[in-house]
Write a structure and sequence with these properties.
Elements: H1 2-13, E1 37-42, E2 47-51, E3 57-58, H2 63-83, H3 98-101, H4 113-121, H5 128-143, E4 149-150, H6 152-161, H7 163-174, H8 181-192, E5 194-196, H9 198-209, H10 223-236, H11 242-248, E6 253-255, E7 260-265, E8 269-274, H12 285-298
Antiparallel strand pairs: 1-2, 1-8, 3-5, 4-5, 6-7, 7-8
The structure holds glutamine.
The site of glutamine (GLN) has 11 residues, from loops.
């Protein structure tokens, strides 16, 4: 497996030439578009990594999985799904227009930005920092790495430029879907800036693959919620490329515009991938290709 991973990374690294960095968050445009790394952690405790695995990058949209788990732990399914739906959109992750078209103000799912803002507003705690610490604590528990922190440069970069998210938060406030615009945005920008490496993502994926049990054997997420979020990862995790990814990779996965992908093969392994050049839908172009290739070679599709 180790040799195979190294060969695959070098084969797919070139695909990065066809992608583009997420320059709408200026700090993310400083990444090297040809970086590519992968880490795998299996249920048997084996760990493999290849390529630029030690590089750190920010969770971005991958954090939506974590906040969804926390919001569900805090409020239960009835409350959370009264404010955000369960259906894929077929639209870009930052689209606004459907908020006005169907059940007004209720985002279609928690994996798009509008839905994730609603979910962030539901995270319990007295201050933004307390709420952020709860998000960080769950990420650290899932990855079994107490050292995970925020990348403050990326946080400030998005905070200064995230006008579309600000517009969406105000729109959601108008419909009573979030309580407070500023604290919701603060938490959202910070959760997106949590810095990890491929190994952390692989361990987080393993935790989901083991129904909420992390690599040390600790149940850090209720079993039922680990199942629920993996289902969202299949239907909505790769934005409006989720259908194609389900066909060609068939692995529950969640991507972020930093180029990270958290993938989880139930009962088998967690996979973390990083390749910052993105395709037109905002997924890591080389990372998606690598995961599809890996799935084909090792028969990892869940379908
Ligand atoms: N797709 C993403 O990763 C989006 C996350 C990014 N922080 C944003 O809100 O635009």
């Amino acid at each position: 497996m180790q040799t195979m991973l190294e060969e695959m990374v070098e084969k797919y690294r070139e695909v990065g030439h066809q992608g583009k960095l997420a320059d709408y968050i200026p700090e993310l445009a400083k990444q090297d578009p040809l970086s590519l790394g992968i880490a795998i952690r299996t249920v048997d405790g084996e760990e493999y990594s290849a390529g630029d695995c030690p590089l750190t990058f920010t969770l971005q949209s991958i954090s939506k999985v974590i906040t969804l788990i926390l919001a569900l732990m805090d409020h239960g399914e009835d409350v959370v799904f009264s404010r955000v739906g369960m259906e894929p959109t077929g639209d870009p992750f930052n689209a606004i227009y459907k908020l006005e078209m169907y059940s007004p103000g209720k985002p279609l799912n928690p994996m798009i930005n509008a839905g994730a803002l609603v979910v962030s507003s539901l995270i319990g705690g007295n201050t933004v920092d307390q709420r952020l610490q709860r998000v960080l604590a769950l990420v650290r528990d899932m990855a079994d790495n107490p050292k995970i922190e925020i990348n403050t440069a990326v946080y400030h970069s998005e905070r200064a430029t995230g006008h579309r998210n600000r517009a969406m938060a105000h729109f959601l406030k108008e419909f009573g879907m979030i309580d407070d615009v500023e604290s919701t945005l603060e938490l959202y920008f910070q959760q997106c800036s949590i810095a990890v490496n491929c190994r952390d993502l692989a361990r987080m994926g393993l935790c989901l693959a083991q129904y909420g049990v992390n690599q040390s054997g600790k149940q850090v997420i209720p079993q039922e919620l680990a199942r629920l979020v993996k289902t969202f990862m299949v239907t909505c995790g790769m934005y409006n490329a989720s259908g194609e990814f389900a066909i060609y990779a068939g692995i529950p996965a969640k991507s972020g515009v930093s180029g990270g992908i958290l993938a989880s093969v139930p009962d088998k392994m967690g996979i973390g991938v990083f390749g910052p050049a993105l395709d037109e839908k905002g997924n890591s172009i080389a990372g998606s290709a690598l995961l599809k290739g890996l799935s084909r070679s090792y028969n990892l599709s869940i379908f």
